[in-house]
């Protein structure tokens, strides 16, 4: 399976404080909006999403169809195909993508330790 770009989506208490902290680690703002309470930060191929007040726990995020610069990949596995494969292998989904659609969609699974994994296709 090709899952696309990987990032960690962090639930933060203070977006400005977190932005400054990660800038000190060499990250730069790549996308997002301070007023909308989220930023995507990048250091080489490492991506971190900072989200204030949007969700409780940290999330592992995969973006099928995108590389680490949010550029469209030539070939990728559609989120619905990834979801179908997981379901066939007995993985329980917390939230499912509508398999009758095409284009942007997402699904959510939990790993054995309860960590949230979001597979979020934007194309």
SSE map:
Layout: E1 5-12, H1 15-24, E2 28-33, E3 38-43, E4 46-52, E5 59-63, H2 79-88, E6 93-95, E7 105-110, E8 116-121
Parallel strand pairs: 1-4, 5-8
Antiparallel strand pairs: 1-5, 2-3, 3-4, 6-7, 7-8
Number of helices: 2
Shape: globular
Low-confidence stretches: none
Alpha carbon gap, first and last residue: 17 Å
Strand content: 35-45%
Rg calc: 15 Å
Q: How are the strands ordered across the major sheet?
A: 2-3-4-1-5-8-7-6
H/E order of the elements?
EHEEEEHEEE
Average pLDDT over all residues: 97
Structural category is: alpha+beta
Notes on the structure:
The structure is a single chain. The chain has 123 residues and is of the alpha+beta class. 16% of the residues lie in helices and 38% in strands. It has an 8-stranded mixed beta sheet with strand order 2-3-4-1-5-8-7-6, with helices on one face. The longest helix has 10 residues, at 15-24. The radius of gyration is 15 Å and the shape is globular.
Quick tags:
globular; 123 residues; alpha+beta; 2 helices; eight-stranded mixed β-sheet
